[in-house]
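Possible regression after last week's pipeline update?

I re-ran a chain I had predicted before the update to compare outputs. Posting the input and the new output here so someone can diff against the archived version. Not blocking, just want to make sure nothing changed silently.
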Amino acid sequence: MNNNTNNKLPKKRNALGRGLGALLQDSDVVNNEKLGGLEALNTMSEIDVETIEVNPFQPRTYFDAAALQELAESIRVQGIIQPITVRQLDHNHYQLISGERRLQASKIAGLKTIPAYVRTANDQQMLEMALIENIQRENLNAIEIALSYQRLISECDLKQDELGERVGKNRTTVNNYIRLLKLPPEIQVALRDNRISMGHARAIINIENVETKLAIFNKIIDEDLSVRKVEEMVRELSNKTSASKDKKSAYALNYEFNQIQSKLSTHFGTKVNIKTSENNKGEIKIPFTSEEDLNRILELLNM
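New output (post-update):
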């Protein structure tokens, strides 16, 4: 199968495991069975574009209008080189599995029909095929990939390790994408629209305070900061936060020692002093003014 520039799919890799190729093979196994009274097809057909409904499981949420127009111009000149994939719902009624950009661009180009592979697929396979097919595309933005990973985990009941095998990524990569969904909506939108990079997003994702996250994000936009500069800012902020926590901890400890010192002074009827060092070692001094005063303190100590 030839590919044009705008619709180039990555080559299949063994790392996909039971990925898109395996799912399509599963469809071939049942291609001679009846589905809803209709026989599933295994050949490419020319289908009326108006008989194809969109994929309800489509993970892509944004299509660049200019890119679609460029693809439409290419289709006018060269036609559809890579067929779309659909499933048949009933007579002359189909549902898209993959290839929504090609379908939309074909309509813009004025095509009445489009070449398509007709497959048998249930809803679970539809979702998984659509998600994996889109994830493999280079032009899917980071948020769309993150949402696709999250849907595969939640709706297809996959664990991160299983998901990694299906899409040819390690668990760390999958987790890094999913963590992007914890960012504030404003930052997610900027990442989706390529106003910031994934490197920027990963640099600020560990900041706990939302307002601080947004402040750094706005600084990135206003000053066009590099990823390296943002990483330095976050590192400095982290160091200051740690120092502040240490200071608060020391203050709390000093307060506690003062309370103990006050109680001891009251108990012994004399000014007791507690001295501490940085490693929390120290000494307690109980002064006395006479031998009688010393005996009184010793009695209090049961000595």
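Follow-up from reviewer: compared with the archived run. The beta strands are 34-35, 38-39, 44-48, 52-53, 84-90, 93-98, 113-119, 273-276, 282-285. Marking as no regression found.
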